[in-house]
Here is the input.
Amino acid sequence: MVAPPHRPAMPVQTPFHPRTSALCSSLFWKEWAGYHAVRSYDTCHEREYHAIRHAAGLIDVTPLYKYDVTGPDAAALLSRVMVRNIARLKTRQVTYCCWCDDAGKVMDDGTVWKLGKHRYRVTAAEPTYSWLLESARGLDVRVEDITDRLAALALQGPRARDIVVAAIEPEGRSLAELKFFRLARGTVRGPRGAHPVIVTRTGYTGDLGYELWVDREHALDLWDAVFEAGRPHGIWPAGIDALDVTRVEAGFIMNGVDYFSAHHCLLETRKSTPYELGLGWTVDLERAPFIGQAALKRERARGSSWALAGVVYDWDAYEELHARFGLPPQVPSGACRTGVPIYGTLGAARRQIGYATTTAWSPLLKQYLGLATLEARHASVGARVDVEVTVEYRRHRIPATIVETPFYNPARKRA
Here is the structure.
């Protein structure tokens, strides 16, 4: 086992910082997993959002945690930890999944890649090294934290394919043929030479997209090559605020916002299972034992108490509520991560049945959307609920409709 590198107490710069800092005219930053991350390059993220949806946005996603898992028992370890049977992955295939504690409560979600025989890579939202190490006891496997050695860019949007084809020389077949949730190897060229790059057909925007992974010392050559190739296609750097709106439109949950990692929760009621988070499709129960399997089998048999749902606010009611105060309808410019109570009817009574975890105005769909955790019996698509809205320091309720997610799902995402 290889110990993870020491992390300083204060946020540090990503390898792309010389480029992102020069472009960040807003000076609007946040801390993400120990790194400085741009929230928006302009004072408002709208141009970045529209680049993702109509051209291409380039996002520094280096802060994601990354682990290489190698050795004869690598597949056995990951199959023991993940709710998916990782042993079934084919070389150069990527899968999305989550991992649970013994009680079947989600600890984190991320991706697993199969790089080759006995060679895998895990990406995660938060530190996972100790959990992998603890779960590897008795197995012939090596776990290495490569988070700080690997830089990563997300290239997302309808012109992403044209840009990645122009910027990266493929190893073998054209990158234009790279399928959804597959990976390929290639080379990027710059003033400092030619450097190996891994391209994955993945992303967090729900659009056509790629993520590009390179050793940190070659990060600037990768940025420059992608940006130059993207100029004819309208490429633009995008920050976390634009990413947040697109991931809500895509119906993607976020650790620490739409759910909480089980090993951080002080209250049992804050913990969630894959079924309660809409991730039941990732769970492969009928196989060799894995962590949380017994608890998840019991839940599947009895049914889940909670469910993830999409919520669309009734805009006429929202507008009318503001009009009572002589105001135009006001929505936050970005995604709002403040929990909002949701109410439903039980018998003759109207009571709280859940809460919206993230809400956002969708510039593309022209709707006010929310991701919500609801009592499962109230989460039927088409059901009408009431959402709490605060106007002029007073709390009100307006109607909303439960809908399927994703809210936005273009065909090009998988094409």
